[in-house]
Amino acid sequence: MLSLTTGLAPLVLAGLLGWTGAVKMFSRGTAQQAPKTALARMLRSSERATTVLRATGAGELLIAAGLLVVPANPVPGAAAAVLGAGFLGYLGYGRAVAPESSCGCSASEDTPITWRAFARAAVVLIGGATVAVAQDTWWPAVSERPAGALVLLAGAAAVLVALSADLDRWWLLPLRRTRLRAFGHPLLGTATDQVQVAASVELLENSLAWQAAAPVVRSALLDHWEDDGWRILQYSGVYGDRENARPVAVVFALDATAGRDTGDDPIVRVSYVDADSGEAVAVDELRAAPSRRILPMAG
């Protein structure tokens, strides 16, 4: 099993670097995401950040090609290990100076740097070092043990997908919605709830209030309670630009009896509360068409 793992390491690493490198190098989203990255904060220029991201993507593609063509040569593996170490250093510095920014690791992530980015960089570092030391080729492993290779590659792909925040919309969010529909939210308290919290969450996520606040929201549902006929749903978020970002609690309020089958769209109230001071953050009133009314919460 160990020999199969080391034999397939170049293929797995080439797949990861080939994907992230191609996205950085060729995607139109690279220029759009660059201003949101910690790299732009470090370089003080979105244009320079875009150039560095594309150059990094070209390097990743070159290393991926080397891992595929000459996996027994230690140079591609060593280069991948150096790249992984560089990624870890960049992520650590970026987390320290711009915690609200994304890493730009795949040029399509717009979430802050998390442990998953560090884990993926560690995979590149460890995988590269393994390939450089083992100097195995991947094609005998695939041809001699195709079933085992397929299972191992599928498992590796699943791990890499789980470590990629930009792929959450394809598997994690649908999985969470399915779980909420099937079992309700784990914070669902008592049988006195007139409508399940999951139904309120689904109603909220289909509203214009959610669309307007989505750029600020950074978490799943954290807490909920009822107050005078309102169901309060609390999320965490980051408010403000990169220079003045601050953590906030994003609080939505909607009719506790409202559900998909109750007819008209309910009023949704939105409030941002500074996580440090507890003071309400002044924001412009959210406006929408009459069919979906969005009102700021009263102080």
Describe the structure.
The chain is an alpha+beta fold and 299 residues long. The protein is built from eleven helices and five strands, in the order H-H-H-H-H-H-H-H-H-H-H-E-E-E-E-E. It has helices at 2-26, 29-33, 38-43, 46-69, 74-97, 115-134, 139-144, 146-162, 168-183, 197-205, 208-213; strands spanning 223-227, 230-239, 246-255, 268-274, 294-296.
Major sheet, described briefly? 5 strands, mixed
Shape: globular
Low-confidence stretches: 189-193, 285-299
Query: For the terminal residues, how far apart are their CA atoms?
Result: 62 Å
Class derived from helix and strand content: alpha+beta
Mean pLDDT: 81
Percent of residues in helices comes to: 40-55%
The count of helical stretches stands at 11
Cα Rg: 23 Å
**Strand adjacency order, main sheet:** 1-2-3-4-5
Q: How do the helices and strands line up, and which of them pair or pack?
A:
Elements: H1 2-26, H2 29-33, H3 38-43, H4 46-69, H5 74-97, H6 115-134, H7 139-144, H8 146-162, H9 168-183, H10 197-205, H11 208-213, E1 223-227, E2 230-239, E3 246-255, E4 268-274, E5 294-296
Parallel strand pairs: 4-5
Antiparallel strand pairs: 1-2, 2-3, 3-4
